[in-house]
Amino acid sequence: MGKKIISLLAVFILLMGLMAAGCGKKENKATDVPEGKNTAAESGSAGSGQGESGPGQEKAGSGLYNGQIDGNSVEIKFNGEDKAFRLSEEVKTEFEGIALKSGDNLTFKYYEDQYGRLVITSLAKALKG
Fold first, then answer.
1. Which of 36, 37, 62, 63 sits CB 3.0–4.6 Å from 88 for a disulfide?
2. Rounded to whole angstroms, what are the CA distances from 76 to 1, 21, 66, 99?
3. Between β-strands 81-87 and 57-68, what pairing exists: parallel, antiparallel or unpaired?
4. pLDDT, tens digit, for every residue of 15-68?
5. 81-87/105-112 β-pairing
6. Taking the model in full, what pTM does it have?
7. Considering just the CA atoms, what is the radius of gyration of the chain in Å?
């Protein structure tokens, strides 16, 4: 009976070790970009999301404002598609003062973060014309 208890204890310790190993944090330092911070600026024509750019590179865009999704995100018709954009902390503080309405033309700068989200770093109403 003593060998049975020792072997059960050994199996239990082995299982606990395997479970603990699976709880480690995977680090991805190469693409970490804090929200609202840009690693490089890229000039582009309004409405374009083209170019050989990777995560974190700022781009310029324009589109039609569809509405606010939640306190962190808005929806913009961009390059013919409705896209969700997150608002950077800086833009969130100014957002209420812009007084956007559905259908307003916008110009903005944005980047793609390490999670693939599009994050707006500046936002303004565009002049119709």
1. 36
2. 70, 43, 5, 15
3. unpaired
4. 666 666 666 555 444 444 444 444 333 333 334 443 344 567 999 999 999 999
5. unpaired
6. 0.56
7. 23
